TrEMBL record:
Gene Ontology MF annotations: phosphatidylglycerol-prolipoprotein diacylglyceryl transferase activity
InterPro entries: Lgt
Keywords from the named record: Cell membrane, Membrane, Transferase, Transmembrane, Transmembrane helix
Gene Ontology cellular component list: plasma membrane
GO BP annotation list: lipoprotein biosynthetic process
Name of the protein in question: Prolipoprotein diacylglyceryl transferase
Alphabetical list of Pfam families matching this protein: LGT
Organism of provenance: Candidatus Uhrbacteria bacterium RIFCSPHIGHO2_02_FULL_53_13
Highest taxon listed in the record's lineage: Bacteria
Length: 237
């Protein structure tokens, strides 16, 4: 499901870049580097912050990626670093390309999380909530994969609706950061088995940064819009 999610996300991103008049071939070239950055970042965060003692005891397990162990927020970090480097190196507008790329991320994550749900990879706390599922042990629990998949499908739908009108550069980056950051921060309180530091999971710390960055981005966009409206009013007066 992860591979399918990547393919669908890539298709959406290329289609979006064409619509915006961006170099979709450059997007395709960047995709490989960004994917590598995401995988390396996802693995490093898992090794260093989620199960460090296991990997210290069994160092070769670091390379046993077929056993799983990829942090989505680590993937965001790795993809962001590599993506910023790539587009700066190509001397193009980083924010325009980043906004086009993030547009396809929610649908890709939504599909990928279906795979997590099918194997119950991220069990949550026991619950009688309507979206809780019965696990093989007979316990009814929240399933992190299912909840995040639903959340990301909803975000993809909102992005599609927003795209019906022209939006300022940075809109989708800001909305994604705030939305994903807040939802992930809350949901991790209902997730079991993850390492915590001072009561929070590694993902929650990253989620706070994402939410703050997203909120700041939305504030900037709204401020700029008000400034443009004020300028237009003064010119008409």
């Amino acid at each position: 499901m992860v591979a399918l999610g990547i393919l669908v996300a890539f298709h959406v991103i290329v289609k979006r870049s064409k619509r915006l008049g961006l170099d979709h071939k450059l997007i395709a070239d960047a995709a490989t580097w960004i994917l590598i950055g995401a995988l390396v970042g996802a693995r490093l965060v898992t090794v260093l912050f989620y199960d460090f003692q296991t990997y210290v005891a069994q160092p070769l397990e670091v390379f046993a990626i077929w056993h799983g162990g990829f942090s989505s927020v680590g993937g965001f970090i790795g993809a962001t670093i590599v993506g910023m480097w790539f587009f700066r190196h190509k001397r193009v507008d980083v924010w325009k390309y980043a906004d086009a790329i993030i547009f396809g991320v929610p649908i890709g994550l939504a599909i990928g999380r279906i795979g997590c749900f099918l194997i119950h990879d991220h069990p949550g706390t026991a619950s009688d909530f309507i979206l809780a599922v019965r696990y093989p042990d007979g316990e009814t629990r929240l399933d992190h994969g299912l909840l995040l998949s639903i959340n990301n499908f909803l975000m993809a739908l909102v992005f599609a609706l927003l795209a019906r009108k022209k939006r300022p550069v940075g809109t989708y980056l800001a909305v994604f950061g705030l939305w994903y950051g807040v939802v992930r921060f809350i949901l991790d309180f209902y997730r079991i088995g993850d390492a915590t530091y001072f009561g929070l999971t590694p993902a929650q710390y990253v989620s706070v940064l994402m939410a703050v960055a997203g909120a700041w981005g939305i504030w900037r966009l709204l401020r700029n819009r008000r400034a443009k409206r004020g300028l237009s009013t003064n010119m008409d007066a």
